[in-house]
Amino acid sequence: MIDLKSMSKKKKAEYIWEYYKLHIIGVLAIIFIVGSIIHGQVTKIDYVFDLTMIGNSVDQNKKTNLENQLTNIVIKEGEKRKQAIVDIIPLEGSSKDNSTMSSINMQKVIAKISVGEIDVVILDKGLMESFIKQDMFLRLDNINKLKLASIKNEKLEAKGSDNIKAVYAINAVDIKIFKDMGFDTDNMAIGIISTCKQVDKAVFVLKWLLNK
Questions:
Q1: C-alpha distances in Å from residue 195, one per residue of 60, 109, 192
Q2: 37 and 95, same domain (yes or no)
Q3: Which of 36, 91, 131, 194 could pair with 99 in a Cys bridge, judged by C-beta atoms 3.0 to 4.6 Å apart?
Q4: pLDDT band (50, 70, 90) for residue 37
Q5: Is the domain of 13 the same as that of 103?
Q6: Are residues 73 and 15 part of one domain?
Q7: Left, alpha or beta for 153 (phi > 0: left; psi -120 to 50: alpha)?
């Protein structure tokens, strides 16, 4: 039996490392993993509002600035690590007239809609009509708090799966905050997704965007 008491500090360290290094490494690895998980949870950002823009790419700094402005609008004072996100979905094509969404990005958008991750979206009017036919947009004329009569921008009508013509979106061509970002608003529409889980916030953001 090894007598550790009779060993020097250096010999003790060498002995312990020689016979227990795998255990020591294992314990340190567990501590590191647990620490990383805890740190990730503590510092994790919870995205609580999603504005999705389907079109051309924009300057990253201007995108971040819009995210900060939306965060100030939708997050209550005192709520920490919560943020609004602006998701840019780029279109492919040599020009806007023949641009399309890739199948991967289309799947991403539909997946986000299906789980209620998107709140407000700006997109091409043609794509909007396609989404409306699949009941992916809320009828704006059914939202009392929106007060459509007070909105000066053109209201866009379309038919859903029920074949009833109604207002589902707003013409986005004159939304200054998007134009200032370098986002092409020509032939674009903005509306609220039908699976949106926070309609009141979506309405507030929509009105804010229209009045900026």
A1: 28, 12, 9
A2: no
A3: 91
A4: low
A5: no
A6: no
A7: beta
pLDDT tens per residue across span 133-142:
999 999 999 9
Who's near 198: CB < 8 A, 6+ residues apart?
A: 48, 49, 74, 119
The length of the chain in residues reads 212
User: What element of type H or E holds 82?
Assistant: strand 82-90
**CA 43 distance to own-chain centroid:** 18
Contact between 113 and 195 under an 8 Å Cβ cutoff? The reply is: yes
Residues 13, 101 within the same domain: no
How many domains does the structure of the chain reveal? 2
pLDDT tens digits, one per residue of 127-180: 999 999 999 999 999 998 898 888 999 999 999 999 999 999 999 999 999 999
Quote the CA–CA distance of 17 and 158 in Å, as a whole number. Answer: 74
* Residues spanned by the domain of 113: 46-211
Here the tokens at position 24 are 């020591």
**Residue given tokens 């989404």 in the structure block:** 131
What is the pTM (predicted TM-score) of this model?
Answer: 0.76
